[in-house]
Amino acid sequence: MGRIKYYTPLEIVADPVYVCGMPHDHHHHHHHEHRAVAAAPAFSLVRLSAWQRMAGAGLALGVLWLLVFAVMG
């Protein structure tokens, strides 16, 4: 796609082909507009059960405490 040309108010008034807020050669047709599609997440916490999430949180806290003791130790 080309670069967007921004018109100043003076160019808009002076340009006879300026119609509906866009010049004729840059009309956008919304029926074939490109849209970004998000990929499926590689890992989702929603898929885990409540017990699995609690176990993971406990494990993460345990690792953090080990790091705290390793730094203080």
What does this structure look like?
This protein has helices spanning 9-14, 50-72. It is mostly helical. The longest helix is centred in the last third of the chain and has 23 residues, at 50-72. The chain is elongated.
Secondary-structure blueprint:
Blueprint lengths: L8 H6 L35 H23 L1
Give keywords:
single chain, 73 residues
Secondary-structure content class:
mainly alpha
* Shape by Cα distribution: elongated
Low-confidence regions:
none
Q: What fraction of the residues are assigned to beta strands by DSSP?
A: under 5%
The number of helices is 2
Brief summary of the model shown:
By secondary structure, the chain is an all-alpha fold. It has two helices and no strands. The model has no long low-confidence stretch (mean pLDDT 77).
